[in-house]
Write a structure and sequence with these properties.
Elements: H1 2-28, H2 38-48, H3 50-71, E1 76-85, E2 88-94, E3 101-105, E4 114-126, H4 128-195, H5 201-236, H6 258-267, H7 270-291, E5 296-307, E6 321-330, H8 338-404, H9 410-445
Antiparallel strand pairs: 1-4, 2-3, 4-5, 5-6
Helix pairs in contact: 2-4, 3-4, 4-5, 4-7, 4-9, 6-9, 7-8, 8-9
C-alpha cells in the first residue's frame, strides 16, 4: 500500500514539472491577445540591457567604496596571535624576571628561543588624507549614480524610438496593402474598359506597371517592419525572433508648458549632476594632494602577551599580560617636490572639470530649445498632415470617378494614388517625429 502511494506521488510530481515549466513559459512570453504597452517594453528592456547593468554595478561598487572610505575614519582592531621559535646559541643567562636562567636565541633581534604573541591591537590614524578619501568616494558615488540615470534615459529613448518605429512600420504595411489592393482594382477597371473599347491598351499597361510597383512597395514595407520588430526583440527577449504584438499607441500626449519643462530639466538633469560630481572629485583630489604635505598622527594600543611562556604569569610569578600605547607623528620634510607636483596636477584636472560643467550647462540650454521647438513644430503639423490625407483620399475618389466617366486619364489616377500614399506615409512619419521629440523632452526632464 505504501509502495502504491509513493508511486502515485512520484507520478503526480513528474506530471507537475512540465506543467509548471509550461506556465512559466506562458508568464515569460507576452499574451497573444494583449499587446505590449510602452511601459512593459521599457521594463523588459531595462532587465536585458548590458550597458544599464554595467552602470548599475558601478553604482553599487562605488556605494561600497564610499562605506569603506568612511570606515577608514574609525579605529581598526585585530587580534594578533603568533609563535616564534629561534635556535638556541647554547648559552643561558639570567632574565630580569627573578633571575631565572634561560637559553638565549641565536638571533639577537629575537627576544627568546620560545616567544608567544597573543595581543589585541587597536590602530587609529588621524589626518586629512582620510577625510579627503571620503570626499572623493562621495563624489565618485554621486557620479556613478548620475551615469546610471544617463544610461537609463538613453535606453528609454532608444526603446521609445524602436517602439514607435515598429508601429510606423506596421502602419506602412497597412498603407502598402491598401495601395496594392487599389492598384489591383484599378487594373481590373482598365481591363474591363479596354474590353468595352472605352480605353486604350496603354491604360492597361500603365495600370499593370502601377500594380507591380505597389507589390514591390508592399514587400519593402513588410521587410522594414520585420527589421524593426527584430531590433526591438533584441532588447526584449532571449530569442529576438519571438512573436509579439504591441498595444495600440493611442492619442499622442499634449506638449507640456515650456516653463515646466525648463524647470524640471534644470532640477533633474543627470548630465549636470555627473559634471558636478566630476568637479567635486577633482576638488577632493586637490584636497588629498595638499593633505600629503601635512603630518599624520598614528595611535596604537596593544593589550595581551609577548613572553617566553604562553601564560598570564611567568615561572617566577612575573606578569606577562599587559598593554602598551604609542602615538606617532610623521612630518613630511622632503620628497623632491613630488607632493607639490601632485597638487598642481590635481588643480589642472579640477580646472578641466569646471570647463566640462559649464559646457554641460550650455548643452542643456541648447537641448531644451532644440527639443521643445522640434516637438512644437511636429505637433502643429499633425493636424495639417491629417487634413492632407483626407484631401488626397477624396482627390483619388473623384479622379477614379472621372476616369470611369471618361473625363480623366490614367496618369491622373496614378498621380492621385501616389499623392495619397505619400501623404499617408508622411502622416506616419509625422507621428513618429512628434513621439520621439516628446520622448526626448520627457527623458531630458526625467519624467519618462
Amino acid at each position: 500500500m505504501l509502495f502504491r502511494f509513493r508511486t502515485g506521488l512520484i507520478t503526480v510530481v513528474l506530471l507537475a514539472i512540465p506543467i509548471c515549466g509550461f506556465l512559466k513559459a506562458q508568464d515569460a512570453a507576452p499574451a497573444a491577445n494583449d499587446g505590449l504597452t510602452l511601459d512593459q517594453v521599457i521594463r523588459r528592456a531595462q532587465a536585458n540591457e548590458p550597458i544599464l547593468a554595467a552602470a548599475a554595478a558601478e553604482r553599487h561598487a562605488t556605494d561600497l567604496e564610499r562605506k569603506d572610505a568612511r570606515a577608514g575614519l574609525l579605529p581598526s582592531a585585530a587580534y594578533h596571535n603568533q609563535y616564534v621559535f629561534t635556535q638556541s646559541n647554547h648559552t643561558s643567562a639570567a632574565t630580569t624576571q627573578g633571575g631565572v636562567n634561560q637559553s638565549l636565541p641565536v638571533f639577537i633581534a629575537n627576544n627568546a628561543v620560545h616567544e608567544y604573541y597573543s595581543q589585541g591591537v587597536v590602530n587609529e590614524t588621524v589626518g586629512l588624507a582620510q577625510v579627503g578619501a571620503v570626499r572623493l568616494a562621495d563624489a565618485n558615488a554621486a557620479r556613478a549614480q548620475a551615469e546610471l540615470e544617463i544610461a537609463r534615459r538613453g535606453l528609454v529613448l532608444t526603446v521609445v524610438s524602436l517602439y514607435y518605429n515598429l508601429h510606423a512600420g506596421i502602419d506602412r504595411v497597412v498603407i502598402a496593402q491598401r495601395a496594392r489592393d487599389e492598384a489591383n482594382h484599378f487594373l481590373d477597371i482598365t481591363q474591363k474598359r479596354e474590353s468595352a473599347r472605352e480605353a486604350a491598351h496603354a491604360d492597361v499597361v500603365k495600370a499593370q506597371l502601377g500594380q507591380q510597383q505597389r507589390q514591390r512597395e508592399l514587400q519593402e514595407a513588410n521587410l522594414a517592419a520585420d527589421r524593426s520588430r527584430l531590433e526591438l526583440g533584441v532588447l526584449l527577449f532571449p530569442d529576438p525572433s519571438t512573436a509579439f504584438t504591441l498595444a495600440p499607441p493611442g492619442a499622442p500626449e499634449m506638449l507640456p508648458e515650456r516653463q515646466s519643462i525648463e524647470a524640471a530639466a534644470r532640477n533633474n538633469n543627470p548630465e549636470l549632476r555627473s559634471a558636478l560630481a566630476t568637479l567635486q572629485a577633482g576638488e577632493a583630489e586637490v584636497f588629498n594632494a595638499r593633505a600629503a604635505l601635512l603630518p599624520d598622527l598614528a595611535l596604537n594600543y596593544t593589550y595581551g602577551i609577548d613572553a617566553p611562556q604562553f601564560a598570564r604569569h611567568g615561572p617566577d610569578g612575573a606578569l606577562n599580560l599587559g598593554y602598551s600605547a604609542s602615538a606617532t607623528v610623521d612630518i613630511p620634510v622632503w620628497d623632491w617636490l613630488t607632493s607639490e607636483r601632485k597638487v598642481k596636477e590635481a588643480h589642472i584636472r579640477a580646472d578641466a572639470a569646471k570647463v566640462a560643467l559649464t559646457a554641460a550647462q550650455r548643452r542643456l540650454l541648447a537641448d531644451l530649445s532644440e527639443f521643445y521647438n522640434e516637438a512644437d513644430v511636429a505637433r502643429q503639423q499633425l493636424a495639417s498632415l491629417d487634413a492632407t490625407v483626407l484631401t488626397a483620399r477624396e482627390s483619388l475618389r473623384l479622379t477614379n470617378l472621372r476616369y470611369v466617366d471618361g473625363e480623366g486619364t490614367v496618369l491622373d489616377v496614378v498621380d492621385a494614388e501616389n499623392t495619397l500614399i505619400s501623404s499617408e506615409n508622411a502622416r506616419v512619419d509625422g507621428m513618429v517625429r512628434y513621439q520621439q521629440a516628446l520622448a526626448q523632452l520627457e527623458t531630458l526632464t526625467g519624467r519618462l
